[in-house]
Structure formats: C-alpha cells, structure tokens
Amino acid sequence: MKKFCEFVVSAFVGGLLIVVPIYLTVLLLLKAMQSVVAFVKPFAMLLPEWFPAEHVLSLLLVLIVCFLIGVAVRTPAGRVVRERIEKSLFEKMPGYALFRSLTQRLAGKDEENVWKPALAEIEDALVPAFIIEELGGRALYGFRAFGAHAFCRSRLYTQP
Hints:
The chain has helices at residues 2-35, 37-44, 53-72, 76-88, 96-106, and strands at residues 116-122, 125-135, 139-144, 153-157. It is α+β, with helices and mostly antiparallel strands. It has a domain at 110-160. The protein has a 4-stranded antiparallel sheet.
C-alpha cells in the first residue's frame, strides 16, 4: 500500500510540474494578446471579416516581441542588462531563486548551486522538497516545497 501511495504522489507531483507551467504560460500569452489588441486593430480591419485577424495578429506580435527579446539577451550587452535586472529586481522577490534553480535543473543545466528535487518522508507522508546540501551519510539540508513551513530550511534524513 505504501508503494502505491508513493506512486500516486510522485505521479501527481510529476503531472503538476508539467501542467502548471504550460497553463501559466498560456494564461500569460492570452493576457499579453489582450494588451496588444489596440495596436493591431487598425491592421485587422484591412483583412476579411471571416478571418480572426485581431487574435492572429496579436499572437504574432507577442511572439515576435518574445523572439526579439530572446535574441537581445543573447548578445553581450543584453546579458549584462539581464543580469542587472535579475540582481536588482528579481532576486529580491521571494521564491525567485527557488523557481529559477528548479527550472535550470529541469532544463538540464548542471550548476553547482542548483537544488535537486526530492520527496522527503515527514510524519509518514511524502513531501516535495529540494536538496540543497548533503552532509555525510544520512543528513540532508533542504527546503520543503509545500506546507506550513514551506521554503524554511529543514534538516531531512534519508534511509541508510
């Protein structure tokens, strides 16, 4: 029964790690499309009425802007600007470092400071956690991802 519960929890967490980012990306894309409708409305009037020009043109505009920003941050000057924005704005936001490290880990970038996702057994339940430091045989230090003490540094133990 315990193995079945572990399977259900790990499958659920794995599904959430896939579905939630996709859902949030779609919501953000739709919101960005709504904000640029005023810019594309004059061009949409030039196209036939049966064609959903406002939606298509606003989607294209948002994707082009995303592409141009992606190209810009790959240049040396863009990299400097991105790092300044991260240090001055994003790193002050709670949880930014956590989600940045998690997405880097999922993207396959192996950096020393990237936390490893794990399931920790706490009070007979599996709790999502991130391993941030390993000490010897059994002791690990990590952050629990959910619950009353989420993002608090905790000492987690593993089976020998």
